[in-house]
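Whiteboard transcription, Tuesday session. T.W. wrote the structure tokens on the left side:
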């Protein structure tokens, strides 16, 4: 396998200021499916930190009172206790919009206050393109005196309410308000990667680049800056300790770090023209996919991304695309819901027009029949290339907000047939295939070893379709008799009338899924 056939080269990344390795070898990556699993691992690793160790984190939202395990600790307690015993705790939280707009400015500020009072430092960071957000979800733990214990966690899971769910999908007891369709405790499906090896150094460097950006934390809002000055908020980043050397190899996985940074003024020193390597990484992998593209995504709602998927379907006549999405948007209401719906309708129509019999879209429910909110951002291409992170399949994540994803190529081949799904000689890889099978088994209510019919792409598609159709028929028949196994339903988004589209489409394009590319790149249709 030629690594450069799947991973971006330096020229393909499109950011001449990028100074990190294009990719690194010798890593061990473990998928942590569900917030409860990730949070338990995070508690275990943070509690083991000693004085002088490093705890760095970035997040979109953080709730200081979110219990990471049923009996605690909370996020604030875990990070605060680490700071009090001499761990270097540093965090970057998106400043966010106000709680009156259903955002999390107060919660992010509160987490920062808790960590600061314990001796750490958390900055509220608004160094984004106007109307954008910092969406990266990263925790890096370094041990300068014991580097083989270094670990990083990157993916889609925020350190906040609603995220602590498990395979039963009964929801987090500390729930955020969402669409009424999800109930009082919205079930939540999500994925985070645990990374060990040299890639930890790269993720550490990603944090350090943002921390050391010399520009104002809030260049857009003079009133917010004035309030910060009056309240004594921390507006200047303290120096970080020297970065430890990269850890020794820990496994057989190659890792590439993919990012989104918008082109903005003042510019990011580490991406003066922005960076769209998430978009370019996905696009390159899609161009090589031949048999199966497996996606789990919160949105899947941008026709700009759907064009790449449709092109792949037209190019490869044997390619199937399986997508798992939420049944409903996370909001409802006469004016909030339609802009959330319109992008997905456009995207799915575009893909189905390209290959109506090879596009398979599902949503998920728990055993009580409550829809599960799919917040994961996962992709597996031909059981070779796998990726998870904070970036959704929409234009905002690919061009406008700050995002961070981790792409993985395992050097260990999987010997089950088909051994080379794509037919390029790359071979199925253990990590990518096991990630896909793990997710598929959960959605089908399968035991860990019950996946013989899921290894081959075509039989996997048949199994998904059969299970979803059976559960759908059981619901339509009045739920009579034994509930069929599985949690999948065919996804049928609601069609919008023309008079709704007339206002929802421009709102969707301008507010919900804004464009962060330059006019030149837009005209060239270049990510």
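and on the right, the sequence the group agreed on:
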């Amino acid at each position: 396998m030629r690594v450069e056939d799947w991973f971006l080269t330096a020229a393909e990344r499109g950011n001449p200021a990028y100074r990190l390795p294009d990719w690194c070898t010798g890593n061990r990556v473990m998928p942590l499916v569900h917030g409860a699993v990730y949070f338990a691992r995070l508690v275990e690793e943070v509690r083991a930190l000693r004085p002088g160790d490093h705890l760095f984190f970035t997040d979109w939202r953080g709730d200081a009172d979110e219990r990471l395990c049923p009996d605690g600790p909370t996020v604030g307690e875990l990070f605060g206790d680490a700071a009090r015993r001499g761990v270097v705790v540093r965090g970057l939280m998106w400043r966010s919009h106000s709680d009156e707009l259903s955002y999390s400015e107060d919660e992010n500020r509160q987490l920062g206050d808790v960590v600061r009072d314990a001796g750490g430092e958390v900055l509220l960071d608004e160094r984004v393109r106007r109307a954008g957000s910092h969406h990266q979800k990263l925790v890096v733990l370094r041990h300068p005196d014991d580097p083989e214990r270094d670990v990083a966690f990157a993916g889609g899971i925020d350190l906040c309410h609603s995220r602590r769910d498990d395979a039963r999908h009964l929801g987090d007891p500390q729930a955020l308000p969402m669409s009424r369709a999800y109930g009082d405790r919205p079930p939540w499906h999500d994925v985070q990667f645990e990374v060990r090896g040299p890639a930890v150094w790269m993720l550490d460097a990603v944090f350090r680049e943002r921390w050391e950006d010399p520009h104002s934390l809030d260049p857009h809002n003079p009133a917010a800056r004035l309030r910060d000055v009056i309240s004594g908020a921390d507006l200047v980043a303290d120096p970080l300790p020297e970065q430890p050397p990269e850890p020794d190899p820990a496994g057989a996985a190659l890792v590439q770090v993919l990012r989104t940074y918008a082109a903005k003024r003042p510019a990011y020193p580490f991406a003066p023209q922005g960076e769209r390597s998430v978009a370019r990484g996905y696009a390159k992998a899609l161009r090589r996919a031949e048999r199966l593209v497996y996606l789990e995504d919160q949105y899947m709602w941008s026709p700009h991304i759907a064009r790449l998927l449709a092109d792949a379907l037209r190019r490869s006549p044997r390619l199937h695309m399986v997508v798992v999405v939420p049944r409903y948007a996370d909001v409802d209401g006469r004016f909030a819901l339609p802009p959330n719906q319109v992008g997905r309708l456009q995207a799915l129509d575009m893909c189905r027009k390209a290959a109506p019999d090879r596009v398979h879209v599902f949503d998920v429910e728990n055993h009580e029949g409550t829809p599960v909110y799919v917040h994961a951002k996962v992709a597996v291409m031909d059981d070779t290339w796998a990726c998870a992170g904070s970036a959704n399949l929409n234009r905002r994540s690919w061009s406008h907000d700050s995002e961070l994803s981790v792409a993985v190529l395992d050097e260990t081949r999987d010997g089950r047939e088909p051994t080379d799904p794509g037919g390029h000689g790359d071979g199925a890889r253990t990590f990518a295939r096991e990630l896909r099978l793990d997710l598929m088994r959960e959605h089908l209510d399968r035991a860990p070893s019950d996946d013989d019919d899921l290894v081959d792409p075509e039989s996997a598609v048949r199994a998904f379709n059969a299970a979803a159709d059976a559960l759908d028929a059981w619901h339509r028949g009045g739920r009579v008799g034994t509930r069929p196994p599985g949690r999948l339903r065919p996804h049928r988004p609601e069609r919008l009338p023309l008079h709704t589209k007339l206002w929802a489409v421009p709102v969707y394009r301008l507010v919900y899924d804004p464009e962060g590319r330059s006019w030149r790149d837009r005209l060239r249709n270049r990510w």
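Someone added at the bottom: The two ends are 25 Å apart (CA to CA).
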